[in-house]
Every structure is written in C-alpha cells, then in structure tokens.
Protein: formate dehydrogenase (coenzyme F420)
Organism: Methanosphaerula palustris
Amino acid sequence: MSTTESETLKYVPTTCPYCGVGCGLNLVVKDDKVVGVEPYKRTPVNQGKLCPKGATCWEHVHSPDRLTTPLIKKDGKFVEASWDEALDLVASKMKETSDKYGPHGLGFQVSCRTPNEECYLLQKLARMAFKTNNVDNCARICHGPSVAGLSLSFGSGAATNSFADLLNTDLIFMMGSNAVEAHPLAARRIVQAHQKGAKLIVADPRYTPTARLADTYLRYNPSTHIALLNSMMYWIIKEGKHDTAFIEKRTKGFEDLKKTVENYADAEAIHGVPLETVKKIAFEYADAKNAVIIYCLGITEQTTGTDNVRSLGNLAMLCGNIGREGVGVNPYRGQNNVQGACDMGAYPNVFSGYQKVADPAARKKMEEAWGVTDLPDWYGTTLTEQINACGDEIKSMFIFALNPVVTYPNTNHVIESLKKLDFLVVQDIFMTETAQYADVILPGACFAEKDGTFTSAERRVNRVRKAVPPPGDAKADWEIFSMLGQKLGLKGFEFTSAEEIWDDMRKVTPSMFGITYERMEKPESVHWPCPTVEHPGTPILHKERFGSEDGLGTFFGLEYRQPAEVADAEYPFTLMTGRLIFHYHSRSQTGRAAVLDYEVPEGYVQINPEDAKELGIANGDKVLLKSRRGEVESHARVTDEIGKGVLYMAMHFGNASANMLTNTALDPLSKMPELKHCGVSIQKVTEAN
Ligand SMILES: Nc1nc2c(c(=O)[nH]1)N[C@H]1C(S)=C(S)[C@@H](COP(=O)(O)OP(=O)(O)OC[C@H]3O[C@@H](n4cnc5c(=O)[nH]c(N)nc54)[C@H](O)[C@@H]3O)O[C@H]1N2
Ligand SMILES: Nc1nc2c(c(=O)[nH]1)N[C@H]1C(S)=C(S)[C@@H](COP(=O)(O)OP(=O)(O)OC[C@H]3O[C@@H](n4cnc5c(=O)[nH]c(N)nc54)[C@H](O)[C@@H]3O)O[C@H]1N2
Ligand code: SF4
Ligand SMILES: [Mo]
C-alpha cells in the first residue's frame, strides 16, 4: 500500500455483527466505503484474531441488493415510498388494529442482531403506544430455555463465567455445543485451556469438529440428555463424590434430585452410552478441582429444553462448581446481541434488566420515567405462539430484523400464518424470504452504519461504531423507531443519538446503570451487573449467593421425556439441524461474502455409511427428505461422523431449508420449538454427476 493511499484510510473499531463471542475488529474505511477488516488487537476477547465470518463481515455492507428506500405493497407489487408515507401507513394500520382488537391484536418480533438501543426502543414503543406485552425476541428459538432454566436453578438466566476464565479450569465438559464452528474465538480459549492441561470431554450425538479436540468424545442418542445426566449424577452421589458442604450451605431441593436419579443407575437403553463410560466421565467431572460446563443448542432446542438446562445446573451444584474462577455453567449464547435483546426487555414478561411487568413497583417506575399510565401487567404472547396465532389473536405484526420464513420451524406453516395477517411490517437491510410477505418494508442501516452496543455471551457490553453512511434513504433502526414513535404521538421519542437511548434505558435499569458510553471506550468494556459508575462490573456470577430471592440455588428432580416426534415406520430417521462455520443463519449477509459462498455454496445432509448403503445412496447423490410437514431436496454426504438412524442438515439454505421439515411442538416452560429433533424419511432422487 502506498503512503498516500494509507493516509486516506480510516480505522473504526467496532464489534463483529455475527456470533455472541463479540470479537472486536477495525473496519477499514476509504472515501465513505468500507474496504476491509483489520484486527483490533486491544480487545481481550479475541486478541486480534477473527474467524472467517468476522474477517468478511464488511462484504455485504455495500451490496447492490441493499434496501435503500421504504417500500409499500400495492396490487401485489412493492413500490417505492417516502419515509412519511411509509411511517404514516404503519402508524395508522397498527392503531387501527389496536383500536379494533386491543393490545393483544399486535405482535412485535424483535431481532437479536441489532444493537441494544434499538431493541430497547422497539419494546418501549410497543408498551407505550399500544399497551401491549406481545414483544419477544429470537432468544425464544435459541437460548430461551437458558433464560428460563438458569433463572429457576440459579436465579439469573445468564452465563456465569467469562470466556477467558476457561484458562483457570481443570476440566471442560461440553454438551450440545459445536463451538469450533459456531463460536470459533471462544473455541480458541478452549484450545488454550486444553494446551494448559485442562481435560476436555465433548458429549454430542455427532462427531463434530469440536469433538475432534476432545480427550474423551461421548456419543449419545439424540435428545436423551436428562437420562445421561441423571445417570452421571446417580453415580456421583452413590460414590459420595458430591460436595455436601456446598449443597448444605448454598442450595435447596437436593433430596428431590437424589430420589429422581435413583431410577437412572443404568439408563444405557435410553442414552446409548455404556455404563463404564458414564461412570468414567461422571467421576472425572466430580474429581476435578475446578470443572466448567459449556452447552449450546443441542441442549436448548428441544421440547425438554428448560429441563435439559436445569439438569446441567443440577450437575454443577452437585459438585460445587459454581461461583468462582474456572467453574460455572455457560450457555454459549448465539447471536451477537441475543443476551442484549433479552436484557433490554424485548421479552413478554419483563422490562429492561429483567424487572417484571407483573410487579406493580416496576410498572410504576417505568410509567413515571416514560410519562405514561396503565402499562400492561400480563404475560405477552411469545414469538413462536405469535406465529401460531396469526389471523386469530394477532392481526398485525412488526418483524424487526428476523427472517422467520427460513429460520422458524415448519416453513409452510410460517408462510400460511403470515398470509393471514391484516398487516405486516418487515424492517431489514435486504429483501428477504420473509420481507416478500410484508405490506410495508422499512430499510434499516447495518452494523457498520450506526452507533450502539451489543452484549456478548459473557455479558460484556461492547461498542458498535458508525463507520460509513447508510445507502440511499436507509436509516439507523433506532431513527426509524424514533420517527415512528413521534408519528404515534409518544412523548420523549425525539432521540438524536444511540447514546441518548442508552442513557434513557440506564436510568431505569439498575443492573446496567454503571455502564456509560464513556466507560465503554475502554477496549475491555464492562460486564453487567454494574450498578454504579464506580462498580468494576461482574465477570463471574453467584460468588457469594445465587440471584434468587433467598440467595440459594435450586436442585430439580427431572425425569427423561421423549421428544414430541420420534422416528417411526413412516419417517424412520431422526433429523438433527445446526450450523456450519462459513454461514450465518439465513445467509442474507454471509451469502453475499464471496469466499464464504465459494466455500459452501449449497446445503447437504449427513448420513451414516450403513444407512446410505441400505438405501443405495452414494456421496453427492441428490436426495429427497420428507416429514409430516413438508419436503426438501438436498445432496447426501456419507460420513460416519453421524450415527445410524440419524441425519444432520445445516439450517442456512433458504432454497433447501431444513425448516421445511421441522416440528413446531413447544417446550411447555420456555415455548422453544423442537428445532433439533423430528422424524423424516430420505430417498435417492438422482445420482451425483
Ligand atoms: N457459523 C455460525 N456460527 C454461529 C451461528 C451461525 O448461524 N453460523 N449462529 C449463532 C447462534 S444464533 C447460535 S444460537 C449458536 C449455536 O451454536 P451451537 O449450538 O454450538 O450450534 P448448532 O450447530 O446449532 O448445534 C450444536 C450441536 O448440537 C448437537 N447436538 C447435541 N446434542 C444434540 C441432541 O440431542 N440433539 C440434536 N439434534 N443435536 C444435538 C449437534 O450435533 C450440533 O452440532 O451459534 C452462533 N454462531
Ligand atoms: N432448524 C433450525 N432452525 C433454527 C435454528 C437451528 O439450529 N435449527 N437455530 C435458531 C436460532 S438459534 C436462531 S438465533 C434463529 C435465527 O433466526 P433469524 O434471526 O431470523 O436469522 P438471521 O438470518 O440472522 O436473520 C436476521 C435478519 O436481520 C437482518 N439484519 C441484520 N442486521 C440488521 C440490522 O442492523 N438492521 C436491520 N433492520 N436488519 C438487519 C438480516 O438481513 C436478516 O434478514 O434461527 C433459529 N432457527
Ligand atoms: S467468533 Fe463470532 S464474533 Fe468472533 S469473528 Fe467469528 S463470528 Fe465474529
Ligand atoms: Mo441463536
């Protein structure tokens, strides 16, 4: 690079827009265009390293496909509109719904991809303007069971320890997490801990790239976590390896657990793991001085998701592995801001900082701060239930930066549901599979074009900084909400910066109060809870007491239950779904990064060699998969990474989508759909060419 060229370059430190690790990076800017990404070495999170998605996260920013102007559907076609026209229509249609059907007639679906300030503002708008708690975010189909389960067990629904704290552990037990592909820069810490001598156990029905790192890899039958964990706990208690001092001092409910696990002394018939192996890993976990549990969607995306999470909570408390360095229970939260969207109150039963809408004092506080009366006290309809209620309870919907047609279970059902709405608004940066069904599309600015904050999986609040202007008439999502709020006549919605919105939130949120924009200038930023501006922040939770009212952790006796739909004669295979390192969800962004698209341009289905042989399927053959809900074509990848009777598809490919097949059955406690387990059939269509 010549000196003159380098002189015109600007480096803007910001946070990666993809996964919940929250890596810092520098956007390289020339003449108001992002031209590349350079490492941001000062942040302790990723120490200058990036995964393939982070390194290419700038490529979609200036894509010619970006939405640049509001669009209104007229006679089945989208036509360009001014902001006034589009927002007047949105305001009047939503008011019409609310006048006719009341607060239950509207549904707000909030993104986990967008900054805290924007999530906060949309839930505030919904609650202030329409007195509705029908506000939810896509944690519902991600780590909703973590929020529910860890709250029940520990009194707080967040990860207990930081990524770097893995370097203090002696043993890492991973279950249902493929961090090497899904959280690569957190996986780097796992590798570092392993190199320092920590033992690594990976339990997963699939031999994943993460499993390859393990000292012990444990294959269990899909969705049998509770049977396996109960067996482990039975043997720990039987051999007296549990931490009685911790149990007595800091927990309740132990007898309930002890009694329940007695039926699981040998549950190999359910989980498929030989008894000797169960004992070996149980004792390794119990004997380690400091052992940490890492889990992810293999645990949560099931109709038993909340119980699965609580079961891991049981195991950690049983061995006293909570509340200090090197231990804990850590859900690797998915999206860049899934922690934040929940923290900001884009949730049907809480305001920001998990202050309950049912609590009169919390409502009163918000009413005074926002200058309104009668904020709703009821539990709103969740994300997944809102889709099921389209046309019935829900008449109008606002979908903010989500792509449900690709990412929610049972695509045909999602499309049919959206079609039943009187009015649908979609706010995105691209024309997505979902936006096609909208009445109005509002063009947002992407992460590189606005200020704000993302809260990572370790509760670290990281700054997002504007590097370039948005394309055409597109606007920062917070500006759009601010304009819409004013159209709806809301007081105090004349925001002029993201920081103003953050401060508006901070004032009413004790756990965030101490985190100012000024403090977030430091590359390491701050972990919440942080109640005062002098408070250093809290990287490790539950040190002295749990977050519950009595300060105790709770054991639960949990029985194994089958998934809602299991393989049978008609649909003899179990379909598991998940991720690939090169793509992110519905690929609206990663599909527009040349190298990522080059690496994996289309989806495939993994099948075990014995099953493939029986069905006459060879590597690369085109295959047809069917479930009770739909069918989809893909290509076979024959591999013994997957067990007999099980198939695996990535969720990323809208044109061959795993969610054509998946089941909408819900976990009763968290309303998580069973995205990771359903019955399917597979047959060959044509041979590979
Ligand atoms: N590259 C990439 N990274 C991402 C994302 C992305 O789209 N792409 N998304 C982000 C988000 S939002 C999230 S939530 C995280 C998710 O991160 P992960 O949960 O780690 O990723 P998944 O691949 O969905 O699921 C992990 C593994 O669960 C296993 N599994 C374990 N037990 C079971 C079981 O009983 N049944 C089934 N069916 N599977 C089981 C599967 O083998 C699968 O490999 O990743 C984040 N990071
Ligand atoms: N079968 C199956 N299904 C799954 C999963 C699975 O494992 N298996 N995982 C589930 C999980 S964990 C998750 S988190 C969900 C993810 O589901 P989604 O959140 O629906 O997936 P994304 O593709 O990330 O959609 C985000 C949308 O926001 C847009 N966007 C990005 N940034 C901005 C912005 O700044 N402003 C605006 N206005 N728009 C923006 C993108 O273009 C994209 O269309 O999928 C779930 N679905
Ligand atoms: S690990 Fe996650 S946050 Fe870090 S660069 Fe990759 S996608 Fe971005
Ligand atoms: Mo997620």
Summary: The CA atoms of residues 379 and 534 lie 35 Å apart. The radius of gyration is 24 Å. The chain has a mean pLDDT of 96.
